[in-house]
Amino acid sequence: MTSPVTPADSSAEQDGAGGQRTLVTLTDIRKSFGDLVANDGVDLTLRSGEVHALLGENGAGKSTLMRILYGLSRPDSGTISVDGRPVQLTSPGVAIAHGIGMVTQHFSLVGPMTVTENVLLTSAGLGLLDLRTGRRMVVEAAERIGVRIDPDARVDRLSVGEQQRVEILKALTHECKVLILDEPTAVLVPQDVEALFRSVRRLTDAGMGVLFISHKLGEVVGISDRVSVLRRGRIVDTVATADASIPQLAELMVGRPTLGVRRADRPNRGDDDLAAARAVSESDLGSYADVETLDVPRDRAILEIREVRLAGRSRDVLDGLDLSVHPGEIVGMAGISGNGQTELVQVLSGLRHPDAGTIEVNQTDITRASPAEVIAAGLGRITEDRYSAVVPDLSVEQNLVLEDLGRFRRGPFLDKQAVRVHATELIERYSVKAAPGDSVGSLSGGNMQKVVLARALARDPMALVVSQPTRGLDVGAAEFVHTQLLARRAAGAGVLLISEDLEELLALADRIVVVYEGRIVGELPVADATPERLGLLMAGETAA
């Protein structure tokens, strides 16, 4: 299918392609956590001057492998060589001393301190440095990656993209020759992704090796020279990126040719993850989900949010937010995390009450309703944290009836037989890999999300609020969730889909609104929406 580049090729390890030298070699790395095998005999090389992508689903073992290389975790067996010499990376400090730096999606910065002060905090091994020397180091490192940054700027006043650059600058001040970028684009708008890629290329042009960890196929194809694909803890292939296509990489990653679903009316641009997605039309959905068509008027909003305000510590976290969702549509909400999405879901769920504004579901006012009253009004909710949406110590069947206890109550007790029948039906319908009596806490993330989804949809809600529904799920579970949402739309429900994954929104939504600092700052029909236009709005640029 593609031209393999074998990591164990001795000639490649000596000189690499085009005279590149091998910076790091991982050989037969194994790591288990109890019965879970995270890395199962992994071989990997990184050469100077290349971006080597490590691609795999969530849970494939990518982050574990990089934690081992950065000294955050010890392998059970296997060897690591840097510049041809075996090393024991017992801590991040040891890894840094060997020229290995790492930047994750979760930054380790001190907000009230300046850029220079943050860099100096990690420079203890360089001796006692004054601020003047620190500023010079920051400027020189910034020049290496082709960016400008104020050494005296407070970090908490920088954009997310600028904060990520500070993390890269920290690594560069240690003369790192290997830079690990673990899911670096997860928190970035598209414009910041482009800037990151330009900086990465400047580093590899200067001879550095970059390990780029991702599950986003379009980005991997756009930035890497080679790709190693991890599946279930093993490298299934290493290929030259120029010889690979997105559908081929998708098949390597998940073991089948398609990656997720998209609506049949969505264009296939061929350069992003939608290129590997299976197109589904409304006629395809009837056999996938047992959904009855809802008897609701299509000419008025099923969910109406008007001028909703919610005070935060220093500013309103919801600042006059207006939004409507009509029957038979999916409204996507894009935005960088921390712009009011979590608080909006809490308000819509009845967990918090707004300081001003109104909320209606099918013309029923739920502004100050309790969670039970919200459910009774016909609003289903799937929150961003599936672990807080279940009671881990209770069984699957008990969790499935938590929002509908009245239906199964017989006097002071629950009708256990009725609960079991109901749970068995939902387990079968939603393909939950568990028995009714199993503890929910013992389930995988995907099966736990299916329990949350089944519970919310069992009441046939007229409106659905769904937040980050596929975060942390494998491809199969994510595809199931997406198809269920499309089936609900086809049945006439109105869906508010809140997601930080723009490709998810572009695959499913009818129109996309963008939230910034608690306000809707823009709305685009999906036909006009591009990652670039959405990214400008997400960054607070209103002229998109």
Features:
single chain, 544 residues, alpha/beta, Rossmann fold, 3 domains, 6-stranded mixed β-sheet, 25% strand, globular, disordered N terminus
Topology of this protein?
Elements: H1 10-14, E1 22-33, E2 36-47, E3 51-55, H2 62-69, E4 77-82, E5 85-87, H3 92-97, E6 100-104, H4 115-121, H5 131-145, H6 160-172, E7 178-182, H7 190-205, E8 209-214, H8 217-223, E9 226-231, E10 234-240, H9 246-254, E11 261-263, E12 278-280, H10 282-285, E13 303-311, E14 316-325, E15 330-334, H11 341-348, E16 356-361, E17 364-365, H12 371-376, E18 379-382, H13 396-400, H14 405-408, E19 409-410, E20 413-414, H15 416-429, H16 445-457, E21 463-467, H17 475-491, E22 494-498, H18 502-508, E23 511-516, E24 519-525, H19 531-538
Parallel strand pairs: 3-8, 3-9, 6-7, 7-8, 11-12, 15-22, 15-23, 18-21, 21-22
Antiparallel strand pairs: 1-2, 1-4, 4-5, 9-10, 13-14, 13-16, 16-17, 19-20, 23-24
Helix pairs in contact: 4-5, 4-6
Mean pLDDT level: 86
Largest sheet: 6 strands, mixed
Relative helix content: 25-40%
Work out the helix count: 19
Structural overview:
There is one protein chain. Residues about 1-15 and about 285-290 have low confidence and may be disordered. It is globular, with a radius of gyration of 25 Å. The strands form 6 sheets. A 6-stranded mixed β-sheet has the order 6-7-8-3-9-10, with helices on both faces. Strands 18-21-22-15-23-24 form a 6-stranded mixed β-sheet, sandwiched between helices. Helix 4 (about 115-120) crosses helix 6 (about 160-170). It has about 550 residues and is of the alpha/beta class. The protein is built from 19 helices and 24 strands.
